[in-house]
Amino acid sequence: MSAISDIMRRAPVIPVLTVERAEDARPLAEALVGGGLFALEVTLRTPTALDVIRAMASVEHAIVGAGTVINAPDVDAAFGAGAQFIVSPGLTAPVVERAQEIGAPILPGIATASDLMRGLDMGLDHFKFFPAEQAGGAAMLKAFSGPFAACRFCPTGGVTAALAATYLALPNVLCVGGTWIAPPELVRAGDWAEIGARAAIAAALRT
User: Fold this and answer.
1) Among residues 60, 97, 101, 128, which one is catalytic?
2) Which residue has the higher pLDDT, 206 or 135?
3) In CATH, what class is 4-203?
4) How many CA atoms lie within 13 A of 180 on its CB side?
5) Which residues make Cβ contacts (< 8 Å) with residue 35, sequence separation at least 6?
6) For the residues of 127-142, what is the DSSP string, one character each?
7) Residue range 21-36: average pLDDT?
8) Residue 33 contacts by C-beta under 8 Å, 6 or more apart in sequence?
9) Residue ranges covered by each domain of the chain
10) Among this protein's residues, is 142 annotated catalytic?
């Protein structure tokens, strides 16, 4: 099991995926990995999410995580389906403690200095900054770099292809999360070529 810091460094963008049909899972993962994006976040927002995680986990080089994890049972279900890391929209003790108990790398969401201080108390120093644009964007992360110099972030929420480079230029940002690479309409259409092309562009976003 890789550390969350290693997972975040695998590529500059983690695609945030909401997949409605399990049969789309494998070709989607293959398109993303083929384009150079290896860490994939499957949100637990559809009835098929766990099946999608299982299918994607079998794709070579894919590191599949579960997103929208909001309670301890979600952690268990995702990990049982083969998720290799956990992403939560917020920071709560039950989710963090359960992930730590079973050895699942976790990227909890924070939006404030108080969130960060609670996370540090839990032994964490890598966080999802969410919702990034609504919570102050790149300017907020710059402000965090002073008092929280050891913390590293994956901003997600309102991050677009146009904004990604601005975030990635910050020294405390290891990667960004976004839906623009594989939005639901492209997944429904099975446009794996377009998704792969977007993944390749995103994979080249290095500073």
Assistant:
1) 128
2) 135
3) alpha beta
4) 17
5) 195, 196, 197, 198, 199, 200, 202, 203
6) EEETTTTTTTHHHHHH
7) 98
8) 40, 59, 60, 61, 62
9) 4-203
10) no
**Mean pLDDT (the chain, rounded):** 97
The two tokens of residue 204 are 């080249």
Q: What is the pTM of this model?
A: 0.96
Q: Which of 20, 23, 30, 41 is catalytic?
A: 41
Tell me if residue 83 falls in helix, strand or coil: coil
30 flagged as catalytic: no
DSSP 52-73: HHHHHHTSTT-EEEEES--SHH
Average pLDDT over residues 43-55: 98
Whether 107 shows a pLDDT value over 70: the answer reads yes
Residue closest to 191 by CA, chosen among 24, 22, 6, 2: 24
List helix spans (H) across 10-148.
25-34, 49-57, 72-80, 93-102, 113-121, 137-144
The predicted pLDDT at position 1 comes to 54
Given a cut of 90, whether residue 206 has pLDDT beyond it is no
